[in-house]
């Protein structure tokens, strides 16, 4: 691979993409026990230490991002996508590609529905990373406030790839991002908050959209967490909401 100019990380991602395509194909067929020829395949460079995914520190979020005026130079959609990421652990694309029907603000537990959306309307159609990523995420704190401001989603960024670069650039130019970290670190920060609160890997994995079968190395049985269960966890690790972000 190295002789062909391809890194081990790139090759491993290719296997992941092929596995995801097959999974979606068999899911559409409602196959109960689909073959998984690429399941668990991972290629690593033996001479490279795996990189630790870095998080945005909680103190940084509270002191820098939650400061009055910190996001004044950002458009309101970019700001609120970031705020939703902070309190849901969602991947950025899972937020900015949300169709209106997936932002569920009515009912006792406001939440986001992360799932494949099949529709003839391009604004309602969506694919997510893989089957374990299908989940419901309660909205609390700054995420709930942000979702209420955008009940129809984020048309400026939907089905586009401009969000990450634009927001990372703004944060860096305004000294609002720690060195060596990107906005993807909000996802890792949310899991760390759950870990510090004492929640085990399985519970964190369900909320993060990770494959429990892969992390356990065996089949997963029994029912998953209810939305009410997820809400209790989200409320426990929720950050205080400053007045100007309510």
Automatic annotation (TrEMBL):
One of its GO terms (biological process) is DNA integration. InterPro entries: DNA_brk_join_enz, Integrase-like_cat_sf. Gene3D superfamilies: Intergrase catalytic core. It comes from Pseudotabrizicola alkalilacus. SUPFAM superfamilies: DNA breaking-rejoining enzymes (SSF56349). Signal peptide: none annotated. This is Tyr recombinase domain-containing protein. The keyword Acyltransferase does not apply. One of its GO terms (molecular function) is DNA binding. Keywords: DNA recombination.
């Amino acid at each position: 691979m190295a002789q062909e100019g391809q890194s081990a990380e790139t090759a491993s991602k290719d296997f992941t993409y092929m596995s995801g395509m097959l999974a979606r194909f068999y899911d559409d067929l409602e196959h109960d026990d689909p073959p998984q020829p690429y399941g668990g395949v991972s290629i690593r460079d033996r001479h490279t230490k795996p990189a630790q995914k870095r998080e945005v520190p909680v103190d940084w979020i509270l002191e820098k991002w939650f400061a009055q005026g910190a996001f004044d130079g950002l458009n309101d959609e970019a700001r609120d996508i970031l705020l939703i990421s902070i309190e849901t652990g969602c991947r950025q694309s899972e937020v900015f590609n949300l169709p209106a029907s997936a932002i569920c603000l009515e009912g006792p537990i406001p939440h986001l529905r992360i799932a494949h959306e099949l529709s003839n309307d391009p604004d309602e159609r969506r694919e997510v990373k893989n089957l374990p990523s299908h989940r419901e995420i309660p909205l609390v704190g700054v995420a709930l406030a942000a979702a209420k401001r955008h009940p129809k989603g984020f048309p400026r960024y939907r089905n586009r790839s401009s969000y990450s670069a634009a927001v990372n650039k703004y944060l860096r130019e305004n000294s609002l991002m720690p060195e060596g970290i990107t906005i993807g670190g909000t996802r890792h920060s949310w899991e760390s908050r759950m870990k510090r609160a004492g929640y085990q890997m399985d519970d964190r994995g369900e909320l993060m959209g990770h494959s429990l079968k892969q992390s356990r190395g065996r089949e997963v049985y029994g029912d998953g967490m209810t939305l009410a269960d997820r809400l209790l966890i989200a409320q426990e690790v929720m950050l205080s909401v400053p007045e100007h972000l309510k």
